[in-house]
Structure formats: C-alpha cells, structure tokens
Amino acid sequence: MTVKSKHVRIKGIKDGLIFLLDDKCPFEDLLSELRYKLEHSHQNILTGPIVHVDIKLGNRPVTEEDKEAVLEILKGQGNLLIRSIEALPVPGSEDNDALYLMSGILRSGQVLHHDGNLLYLGDVNPGGTITCSGDIYILGSLRGMAHAGVDGNEEAIIAASLMSPTQLRIADIISRPPDEWETRESSMEFAYLTNGAMQIDKIHNLVKVRQDLNVFKGV
Amino acid sequence: MGEAIVVTSGKGGVGKTTTTANIGTALALQGKKVCLVDTDIGLRNLDVVMGLENRIIYDLVDVAEGRCRLNQALVKDKRFDELYMLPAAQTKDKTSVTPEQVKDIILELKKEYEYILIDCPAGIEHGFRNAIAGADKAIVVTTPEHAAVRDADRIIGLLEQSHVESPKLVVNRIRPGLVKSGDMLDIEDILQVLNIDLIGIVPDDELVIKAANSGEPTVMNPDSSAAIAYRNIARRILGDAVPLMQLDRKPGAFKKFKKFFGMA
C-alpha cells in the first residue's frame, strides 16, 4: 500500500473539512488510501469535537454503491459528520440531450453538421444541407435538405416552422416531398426592442439584432 | 479613394456583363469617374458590349505581368471622358493572374476613379476569387429562374465568408406578363430565399440585345425600360432613394399605334 500517493486530499474550511477525492485513479485505490489515512496517518483529526465533512468526488462517474462505500469508511469514525457527498456531472453525458443553438442562413452548397440536437434559428435554402446526430428544430424555412439521426437514430425528428424541403432524411430513410417552390408566406417572426419600441421582424434577421449568437457563416 | 464593386452571379448568361456595362455607363452619365474591369480572362465580353474591342492594346494580364503600365492598358470610352475600361486577356486563362495581382491593380485604380465596376466570370473557382479580391462591395445578378437563384444563393454564401460587404441584389430580365400569370418567380419569392437587399429590378427588354450587338450600352437609349432600370440602380448606388419600377405598366394604346407605324 502506498502512503505517498495523493488521491485523497483533506482541506480544512471554516466550519469543517473537505475531502477532495481524485477522479482519475482506480476507485479501489481511492478507497484503500482513504481507509489508510483515517486509520493511520491522520489520526489527529479524528480526536476532538464533531467535524462537518463535505466529500467531493470530482468528475468521476459514480454509482450509489460507490458513494455508499466511501460513506462506510467515514462512518466508522465517530466524530465525522457527513454533510454532503457530491460528484460533478461528467461533461458530455448531459449535453447530448441539450439543444445546441445556432443562427444564420444556410445557403446553397453549405453544410452544417452537429452532434446532438440542434435548434437552428434561420432558413435552410435549397441546396443547403443540415445534418445532425439527434433532432433538428428549425425556426425558419426548411427549403434544403435536412438529415436527422445521421448515426442511425430512427427516433430523431426534424421540425421546421415552414416545411418545404427538397429532401428529408432520418437515419437511413430518405423521403422526397412533392417538388414545389415555396408559395406560402413564412409566418414565424420575433419581437425585439429598439430604443424602447417593440419591433417585429422575420426570424432570419435575428442575427442582425443579436450579435452575441453563434452565427453560422458557412464551411 | 474610390469604391470597387464586383458584379457577380455564379450562373452564366444572367447578364453580369450587361449589368456592369450599363451601371458603369449610367454612373458616368451622372458625372462620376468610372473604370470598368473585365476579369473574365479567356472569355472577355465587356469590350464587345461597350463597343471598344478595336481599341484594346494591352490587357489585365499584361498589367499583372508588368509588360505595360496600368494607364497604358486602360481603354477610354468613346462616349464619355470619365469612363475607362480595363479589358481582360482573350488568349490566356483565369489562372494567369492571382487574386493578389488583381487586388493590387484595383487598389491602384481606386486612387484615380470614384467607381470601379468589376465584371466577374461565371463560376466559383479561380476567376471568381480573382474578381472579388479587390472588391469592397458586391452586386449579385440573378434572373427569375430557380437555377439562377440557386447559384446566386451559393455566391452570396461565398461572399459572406469573404471580406466583401453585404451584397446587393439585381433581378434581371423580368417578364411582367409571365410573373403575373405565375409562370415566373416573382421578386418576393426570390427575396425570401436570398434575403439580401434589393438594389434594382430590370425588365426583359429586346433593346438590350440590340444595344449589346451594336456596342452601345442600353442605358444611352431613353426609350428602353431597361435603361431606366439601370439608371435607377446607378442612382441608388449614389445614395438616392429611388422607388422600384412598376413592372405591370403597359404602354398606352396610342404608343402601340405609333410604334406600329414606326413613329416611336
């Protein structure tokens, strides 16, 4: 058993202790080092008044059993009162379900690909292609090609305020809607303020108003 | 310092050269100092439309390769003192000049002229990159056809990625009768897809063909409806607020009658 490893760091704060547990090492090493520190090297913190303890597991993906195992070791020590035990969410695990926001005009010959779900504020013109591993939501006119669930997800959907695509694809299913040039008026608009006055404009002009958006400029 | 405007379209045959010649001439009519630059190397047309073919001595490639000075290659228009043209070479191809060389030439011209109109070749390859290299602004020409609108959209996408300022649209060769019957795309349809500012609409006019063949820009002929449209575009470039032309205006019965007898 190694004593020098620094998988477990104990920090004192105003009203207690924080146990920072490394999130890279094997979980077993973590447990044994924790046990060793409490039973041998850090005996001094266990004597004295009751101490509040926060446990931080970092970015390690942990199950309830894992948390239980950590708690088990600490519970054995009489004066440690466990206040919280937390693990930060692993980046990416949640993002897959989140909508990614983009704006602009996807023009002929341009391709936009996104891994995950995409909310596109603007038009997809004929000859433009939008592909997504998840769902595609278009606030604007879809006149080009949209391909949702490119990796084979048949549950994916394509939504558009004005649905007039040259072609639609979901997973490996291809559909070709009746060929017709758009005749309906695009009705989706957005409201914004200019000098305190309410303005209404078509959604594709959002970029001109909201410079802070992620604007697609073509590939 | 002048302003360089590239006239482009993606698709061929929609009227880039005609538009360049006519807007350029219209600006000269307004008393501006104008230079037209043909970047369609190997397929030059601007000189023919302007009726200046027989005055060409040097060309764009000669200037780029240092065989002559820029001033030696400029052809002065036969109608206006302040209108010049820099012809393209007919015997070379697009790759015989680089975008940097064109940019340098345009920069040089901007010192001397108020407006430089660059006639762009069709396509999105080397010739297109040459043409936009020195441009500050762009005019995208399209016709009311799906194919032309599709290509214009592609070009606008490429322009938006470049340094060129927000392009303006000219819808060329509109036939009001066909638009009315629903057999031709109308302006609203086109604008909805392209979503850029419209700077002019030009009706289809047989006089344009006649004028191009005689080397006399249409804009010189006050009877031509296209001429008025081009003059309006030139005025909008100069910053005037000119309302769009009413297209469904039919010539009166009397005028038709006079035309029939060759009086108008």
Automatic annotation (TrEMBL), chain A:
Domain Septum site-determining protein MinC N-terminal, chain residue ranges per copy: 8-85
Quaternary structure (record): Interacts with MinD and FtsZ.
The keyword Cell division is annotated on this UniProt entry: yes
Native species: Paenibacillus etheri
Sequence ranges assigned to domain Septum formation inhibitor MinC C-terminal in this UniProt record: 103-200
Function: Cell division inhibitor that blocks the formation of polar Z ring septums. Rapidly oscillates between the poles of the cell to destabilize FtsZ filaments that have formed before they mature into polar Z rings. Prevents FtsZ polymerization.
Alphabetical keyword list: Cell cycle, Cell division, Septation
GO biological process: cell morphogenesis; division septum assembly; regulation of cell septum assembly
Entries under InterPro entries matching the protein: CAP/MinC_C (IPR016098), MinC (IPR013033), MinC_C_sf (IPR036145), MinC_N_1 (IPR055219), Septum_form_inhib_MinC_C (IPR005526)
Family under the similarity heading: Belongs to the MinC family.
Protein name: Probable septum site-determining protein MinC
Chain's gene name: minC
From TrEMBL, chain B:
Keyword Nuclease appears in the UniProt entry: no
Any single Gene Ontology cellular-component annotation: cytoplasmic side of plasma membrane
InterPro entries, alphabetized: CobQ/CobB/MinD/ParA_Nub-bd_dom (IPR002586), MinD (IPR010223), MinD_FleN (IPR025501), P-loop_NTPase (IPR027417), ParA/MinD_ATPase (IPR050625)
Keyword Transmembrane helix in record: no
A molecular function GO annotation: ATP binding
Similarity comment: family membership: Belongs to the ParA family. MinD subfamily.
Described purpose of this protein according to its UniProt entry: ATPase required for the correct placement of the division site. Cell division inhibitors MinC and MinD act in concert to form an inhibitor capable of blocking formation of the polar Z ring septums. Rapidly oscillates between the poles of the cell to destabilize FtsZ filaments that have formed before they mature into polar Z rings.
Protein name (database record): Septum site-determining protein MinD
